[in-house]
Amino acid sequence: MRHIIHGLCAMCLGTTAAWADGPTVTMQAVAGSIGGVPMMIIEGEGLDKKHGFTGTFEYLPSDGLFQNFLIGNSDIAMDNDLLGVAIARAEGFDVSAFYPVGNLYLGIVVPGDSDATTPEDLKGHKVGHFGADSGTTAFIRLIVQQMYGFDVLEEYDMAQVGPAALVQLLAQGEVDAIFDFEGFVSEAMVATDGHYLLQAHEAFSKQNDGFAPWITNMVAHEDWMQENPALVYAVRDAYDDAIAMLEDSHYEILRKPYIAEALGISDPAVLDQMIENGNTYGYFTNDWSEEKRTAALDFLGELAEDGSVIQEVPDGTLVTLEDTIGPRP
User: Fold this and answer.
1) Coil, helix or strand for 314?
2) Do 197 and 180 touch, CB atoms closer than 8 A?
3) pLDDT tens digits along 62-83
């Protein structure tokens, strides 16, 4: 249908410019999230036009974000994790993750005057998080179990508030540590002269031969990819360009007003910290090698065996474009 519409438009002199801009792809990410930065760069630097499509970029609240994609309001979701994809496929949605986006830019943060040197030192202490069913707490819980052999939900005195409120909770001394993600991690570090007690991507990678699951992936409906093979390759290329710009600039591109404003960062010290954390840990990746995909499936398989988050790993949860839609047109 999309090709028919564009064919008709091409015959209309009044829409010549729209045709020249290429077909439209609607993309979505969480508003204000570091995970949305590559999409901000695609939009801000015109990488969509460079790769032959016109992006419609939607920055949405996290509540209902995945549902908005599942019902077909966007073509590509940039901010979804593999657990959500596995659950959606188990429920009958033909969605697949076809590329990585975000590393685990999250962890346990303690204030600068904390005596804790390992997660074990927080046993019996009050720790803030934003929900046992959140990806952040689930990943930290899993990593601590692997590395230190105890369950944070049993050994810590957990206090639950929203991810933004955790920063103030730590700054006011109401908790001894928080589980949070960027850029709240950077805000908490600046507010408390704090630091990571455990950085999830770094810790998980050390324990698992260099592999850590991705906090976000590029996800699309299988039928949309089949109908738009050139477009999905073009979006992947635009993403590759975006993260190359991040790395080539050593994350200084985050200072551009269109990114800093979209992230809601007005404090230069927080922006400095976010850039430093990006250079130290790396926020994004495009390593979708067979080795990493196999490790990811093994990781999901372990979670399915545990049964507390997912019960199965449906076929097609992770795919490559080459296997799903064939070589680049």
Assistant:
1) coil
2) no
3) 778 899 999 999 999 998 889 8
Nearest to 154 by CA among 167, 138, 141, 172: 141
Q: Phi and psi (nearest 5°) for 119?
A: -55, -25
| CA gap 59, 23 in Å, rounded | 20
Alpha-carbon gap, residue 272 to 4, rounded angstroms: 48
Per-residue model confidence (pLDDT) at position 182: 93
CB 220 within 8 A of CB 75: yes
Mean pLDDT of the chain: 91
The dihedral over CA atoms of 174, 127, 61, 96, expressed in degrees to the nearest 10, equals: 170
Exposure pattern of 261-281 as b/e (b: 16+ CB <10 Å)? ebbebeeeebbebbbebbeeb
- CA–CA dist 305, 328 (Å, integer): 36
User: Considering only CA atoms, which of 216, 184, 185, 181 is closest in space to residue 65?
Assistant: 216
* Distance in angstroms (rounded) separating the CA atoms of residues 128 and 227: 45
% of the chain beyond a pLDDT of 90: 79
Percentage of the chain lying above the pLDDT 70 cut? 94
Looking up tokens 């799903």 gives 324
